[in-house]
Design a protein that fits this description.
The complex is a heterodimer. Chain A is built from 16 helices and eleven strands. By secondary structure, chain A is α+β, with helices and mostly antiparallel strands. The longest helix of chain A is centred in the N-terminal third of the chain and has 20 residues. The N and C termini of chain A lie far apart (48 Å). In chain B, helix 3 packs parallel to helix 8, helix 11 packs parallel to helix 16 and helix 12 runs antiparallel to helix 14. The mean pLDDT of chain B is 96. In chain B, the strands form two sheets. Chain B has a six-stranded mixed beta sheet with strand order 1-2-6-3-5-4, sandwiched between helices. A six-stranded mixed beta sheet of chain B has the order 9-10-8-11-7-12, sandwiched between helices. By secondary structure, chain B is α+β, with helices and mostly antiparallel strands. Classes of the chains: A alpha+beta, B alpha+beta. The interface between A and B is large, with 88 and 87 residues.
Chain lengths: 431, 444
């Protein structure tokens, strides 16, 4: 089946203060998406301050130069909009979706906190409590909490930047100070380190003028130099396990390093496709073998990057496979089967249609993610930040369609045990 | 701390754009299937939602049917179905609740015919092969076991039991033992009896002319037929307030706090006012309750309060996961905020803010193919069409402070709440009992 292209228009410019701006108009529905992405994430946290990038994200909602605490939320929602923010390995985003008559208001709100968030002791203590509850909900009080995104990096990587717990220890969170927050803001929240993207129902000339009006006088501060986070590939398998007292079933996750997503896109794309060939749907290699034939796992999934965002992560990153097993399941057997299936692709290639049908399904997934104005703004902002190429959003599914069988075969040949980091969940909650 | 004078004024909103409700085209096929098509050309895809009434279907059989309905026909295997769907960029999945069976899918828009052809094959000829049923039964049991280790699921189970007593809504997840006992013949029986087009609705939203979508549905699904008879649920019983139900989860580091309150259906004259009252109380981030227990006290991360609509009744459910040591204080603030909204009228600015949010988010929900398809399908399940949105928007725009206060007094009064807490009973019982009578849940 022919894979259709998307043709979102893209306007790019940089304000004199260094802020990069991406506009992608679309008048189909009377809504706009606004995203501001800062080039700082979990990897940039200082030693002894695990979880700080995420804690700081919370502080960006606690009032700013012209806005009291709670005002940001009230102004967005009182305009009929929704908001959020999220912290990733390589970036932190802040975003709103609103009826298009609220565009200027959203730009005002983002510019105000880009100038000066209100960093106070009271707000810091309050948000430390909130973040601790977030960690309890998502990690400590549930089975498989943080599996595998918090559990694999420390097995695979050696440096603090790549290996540490991105949600943070309670001890580190509690020792955070207002001075730490002010330093973090000064260092990383420079407008030269940010990208603003706006998508949806607006006129480019008007939006350009509004962006200049609200962001034009944000003081210029240069982006900090991005540290080198490179680590060598593994030369021998790394394996670890832990008991999850709440988990009723065993689970296993394994990861292999992949080529640099930014500097070697051509080398990287085959791995993005391979993850889907292995795990997307009942006709994929590992679902057919492990779930339907062997019944050695009850579910299996595969993706790139520990947060599953192949086009919003930088090197070093990995192809991740994860599986839950039936009670008493044998994780070594599962790993051996994965090894066999990868070797089989490497030696026998793919079945007729296997690649093209996977590529067609990936096109649907990619197009679907861009249907929401906010999805478009967020992805374009990150593509601008990491690659200087927001229009790549229009061609990603075409590039994926150009990946060849030979490339998949070569990528599968790289998923060998000696390059693997694996972590096993021992089911402490099995009855 | 010094008070800073604002240097810059908040920009005023541009003129409100009138709610733009997409036009729908509807046609009922001879076999009774209603087809609703909407054009939205934002991406070259199509979204499909087939909703089949499923009231009174056996819980364990219905759950396993959703996991095996795509597991093969007389001419295609599980893998064939998945591979053929993938060829058109497509996928299908099935789910059930006490009201309906829902089969959802999407594909590249040129693949609509093929997606519907495969769907028709499944609807008229699902085989429920013994091998595949064995596999999926074991997987479903594993999934239920995982769900049973999650506090949110356990709190939901306890709350539904408390809300619905002996009504079919009271239990919505089958036990592993019941699932283990289901055999393929029972799945074929349930399918034959209940998966038929009369009363069913298929919604098709995407980058194509509605007439083209309807013609495709007619071509592919026109021959789908089936016997069986419609089934209805009795109305859900009224909530019974009374002692708080405490469910013990030893060593839990948080407590799951749930309060159910009465609510009304989307068609009820009080609905818009109740929606606004709920927003002011706790239904969005900028609400009294969230600002209190999260942004002031730091007791919780993601508290929410939501009106849940089911065919046989509606309810308002208040939910928060709170630190074990502040479980009593969190209940106190929740009861306080409910009492406050039920006793005193909201301020003008609180009401206007909630109104803008309710109106604005109506527009956001319709701005994607998937969002629109879900909305049209959900409404269809309640006999509503998209034009309901325009009527509802008008009611939201009009509801006055007195109406909202009256709705709050009637529906949000804490005295009417049925409350459940799941947590470490040894640590939280005394602090809860200081505020309200507490009854330990019986072992289930």
């Amino acid at each position: 089946m022919r894979i259709p292209a998307s043709k979102y228009p893209v306007e790019r410019f940089t304000l004199p203060n260094g802020l990069r701006v991406v506009l992608t108009p679309d008048r189909a529905a009377p809504v706009v998406g606004v995203a501001v992405v800062y080039d700082v994430g979990i990897r940039s946290e200082p030693q002894g301050r695990t979880g700080f990038a995420h804690l700081f994200e919370h502080l960006m909602f606690q009032g700013s130069e012209n806005l009291e605490k709670l005002a940001h939320f009230r102004h967005v929602q009182g305009s009929g909009g929704t908001f959020n923010g999220s912290t990733h390995f390589d970036y932190t985003d802040y975003f709103e979706t609103l009826p298009s008559n609220a565009l200027e208001r959203a730009l005002f709100l983002e510019a105000d906190r880009m100038r000066a968030p209100r960093l106070t002791e009271e707000n810091l203590r309050n948000q430390i409590d909130v973040v601790k509850e977030e960690i309890r909900v998502n990690v400590l009080n549930r089975p498989y909490g943080g599996f595998p995104w918090l559990r694999l990096p420390p097995v695979m990587f050696d440096t603090f930047a790549n290996a540490h717990d991105g949600y943070g220890s309670f001890e580190d969170l509690e020792s955070a100070t207002v001075a730490d927050a002010a330093d973090f803001f000064d260092r990383y929240y420079a407008c030269g380190n940010a990208v603003l993207a706006v998508s949806g129902d607006f006129d480019v000339a008007t939006a350009t003028e509004l962006v200049e009006r609200h962001f034009g006088d944000v003081p210029a501060r240069p982006a900090p130099a991005r540290p080198d986070f490179t680590e060598p590939d593994l030369t021998a398998e790394r394996r670890s396990s832990y008991e999850d007292r709440l988990a009723p079933l065993p689970a296993i996750a394994a990861a292999w390093r992949v080529p640099d997503p930014v500097s070697d896109l051509q080398g990287y794309l085959p791995y993005v496709v391979l993850a889907e060939v292995l795990t997307d749907g009942d006709a994929s290699r590992l679902v057919e073998r492990l779930v339907l034939r062997d019944r050695s796992v009850t579910s299996v999934g595969g993706y790139i990057g520990f947060m599953g965002e192949p086009f919003a992560v930088r090197d070093p990153t990995a192809l991740v496979l994860q599986a839950h097993l039936p009670p008493g399941g044998d994780v070594d057997k599962v790993l051996r089967s994965v090894e066999e299936e990868c070797a089989r692709i490497a030696s026998d290639g793919l079945a007729p249609d296997e690649l093209s049908r996977t590529q067609a399904r990936m096109a649907t997934h990619l197009l679907r993610d861009t249907d929401a104005v906010l999805g478009r703004a967020l992805q374009m902002a990150v593509l601008e930040q990491q690659r200087g190429e927001p229009e790549l959003l229009n061609t990603l599914h075409t590039l994926i369609g150009e990946v060849t069988e030979e490339q998949i075969v070569a990528a599968a040949a790289q998923l060998v045990p000696s390059r693997r980091a694996a972590v096993e969940v021992i089911a402490g909650g099995a009855k | 701390m010094t008070v800073t004078t604002p240097l810059r004024a908040l920009p005023v909103l541009g003129p409100n754009r009138a709610l733009k409700v997409p036009s729908t085209t509807e046609h009922t096929l001879d076999n009774g299937l209603t087809v609703i098509a909407v054009r939205r050309s934002s991406v070259p895809l199509v979204e499909v939602r087939l909703r089949v009434p499923f009231a009174q279907a056996d819980l364990a059989r219905a759950a396993l049917l959703t996991q095996t309905v795509l597991s093969g026909t007389s001419t295609m295997s599980t893998v064939d179905i998945a591979a053929e769907l993938q060829k058109v960029g497509g996928g299908l999945s099935a789910g059930a609740d006490p009201d309906r069976l829902l089969i959802s899918g999407n594909a590249l828009v040129d693949g609509l015919d093929r997606l519907l052809e495969i769907l028709a094959g499944v609807l008229t000829d699902a085989a429920y092969p013994a091998e595949e049923v064995d596999t999926e039964r074991a997987r479903l049991v594993d999934r239920i076991r995982v769900a049973q280790s999650q506090p949110s699921h356990l709190a939901r189970v306890a709350l539904l039991k408390r809300m619905y007593g002996s009504h079919p809504y009271a239990v919505q997840t089958p036990s592993p033992e019941r699932v283990e006992a289901v055999v393929p013949d029972e799945l074929r029986g349930l399918h034959g009896e209940r998966v038929h087009p009369a009363g069913a609705t298929i919604v098709i939203v995407g980058d194509l002319e509605p007439e083209q979508a309807i013609a495709a549905a007619e071509r592919m699904l026109g021959k789908w037929n089936g016997g069986g008879h419609p089934a209805e649920l009795p109305p859900a019983p009224a909530l019974e307030p009374g002692p708080l139900t405490l469910v013990d989860r030893p060593d839990s580091v948080q407590s799951s706090l749930r309060l159910a309150l009465p609510a009304v259906s989307r068609r009820h004259p009080d609905h818009a006012a109740l929606q606004l009252a709920n927003l002011v109380f706790g239904g969005y981030f900028s609400s009294r309750w969230v600002e209190n227990i999260r942004e002031d006290k730091g007791y919780t991360y993601g508290p929410h309060s939501l009106i849940e609509h089911a065919v046989a009744g509606s309810a308002l459910v208040v939910s928060a996961e709170v630190a074990t040591e502040v479980t009593g204080p969190a209940l106190l603030e929740t009861l306080y905020e409910l009492g406050r909204i039920a006793s005193l009228p909201p301020k003008d600015e609180e009401l206007e803010q909630a109104r803008q949010y309710a109106l604005g988010t109506l527009q956001l929900g319709m701005s994607t193919q998937a969002g629109l398809a879900g909305l049209v399908s959900t409404y269809a399940g309640f006999g509503l069409r998209l034009d309901y949105l325009a009527e509802h928007a008008a009611k939201l725009a009009k509801a006055g402070k007195d109406e909202v206060a009256a709705a709050a007094a009637q529906y949000l009064a804490p005295a009417r709440a049925a409350a459940v807490v799941l947590g470490d009973a040894a640590k939280v019982e005394a602090s809860l009992a200081a505020l309200t009578p507490v009854q330990r849940a019986s072992e289930s």
